[in-house]
User: Fold this.
Amino acid sequence: MLLPKTFIDDMSQVLSPAEMDRFVQALSGGDTPVSIRKNAAKMTTADCDQPDDNGNQVPWCQYGRYLPNRPQFTLDPLLHAGVYYVQEASSQFISHVISTLVNSEDPERGLGTKPVTALDLCAAPGGKSTAAIAALPQDSILVSNEIDRKRARILAENIQKWGNPNICVTANAPADFRKLKETFGLIITDVPCSGEGMFRKDEGAIAEWNPAKVRECAALQKQIVTDIWPCLKPGGFLIYSTCTFNVQEDEANIQFIHDQLGGEIVPIPVDESWNIHPALTGSFAPDVRPESACRFMPHCTQGEGLFMALIHKPGKRPASNEKQASNEKPHKTIQDKSLPTQIRTWISANDYVIEQDKEGVAHAFSPRLYPLYRLLASSRLYILSAGVEMGTAKGKDFQPAHALALSTILNPEAFPTVDLDLETALNYLRREAIVLPPDTPRGYVLLSYRQHPLGFVKNIGNRCNSLYPTEWRIRNL
Assistant:
């Protein structure tokens, strides 16, 4: 692997000669670790009782695991069921940062254990969003946003698979959120960057790198944070991260947030045994101390390149932990009388709002998510998905949605269930014909693999019609 000379020259100015040698050697010839993060909300009793055969734990993430090799993930139905997420180990550090905020004993330096309204601004493909909602206090709500519409659709798919009902997926520019002033207690900005942290993993990142791109990314990152800063509540926190090594996009930018926006840099406590590299210091960022940020460097930690810093917005947090997003109170009854009353039995929550849009699609919203959803809609933000899609009116019939099957609020007793073997499960995920047991009731049937829901079919007797999303099907395998 031939690293760009300018990149080496730049890093040589901030790393000692001895460390630079180790850095280049690790970046040029080191192994790329494989890791996953388990979905605790979907772990069954059987999962808990089984010995952990998924490798060694990622030190900074309770449910993160290193794998000894890269399996063919696409051929594992549990991935499609959202039982785990394939996520690079360094990126799983977001779980530790949020858990630290939640568990902090200092009310001025933490989020506390009450529900939080959070925004993941540059969220695709979904790793940090799913990690964040898992680490935040119960009943917290999250807006998971991606400006690129194509990437946003991938984000929406991964959010559906994860199954948490308290997420809205949007596709908007950072400046579009300015009208939501002081709405969020936590904002995650994993900003677009020059991608130096991916050099070992993706040689294409090397080919695309140049000094001009670094300067362009640094300027864009400043603009993104400037646009979104007004949306952060006083007393709230912003997590700034990149997957790059240079100081222009990292330390210099958190110095900018400190100087121009008034943000306070908050040290992130870490265990010394994790070997996380401290921030780089120098004249480019005079207020940045070694403890001000965490750098994941390939010669120190088992993971790819990552920079992460925690910024506190000064000011007193409102007495109410969350701003009322809308004056309209959530209803506890089905609002559209044309909806069949039995669909409320499809979910395990009794206090959810269920609404049907003009296309006949019904969605379920938790009491905390519904006001935020209405606020997003009234602010004319582009919403791809919100809450849990329940199903769609089909003439006199009402067809359950795939998102319902994957949601953690699904009431599995509402449908007859057939647990599939591996071969049949893969055939279903390919949208190929499958044969159900002869005693399977007619109508909508929930299919599962190892007791984890995969999706629905409609059993019509001599065959069954697949309701698995066509665009999600396994191809070419």
In short: The first strand starts at residue 34 and ends at 38. The chain has a mean pLDDT of 92. The first helix runs from residue 5 to 12.
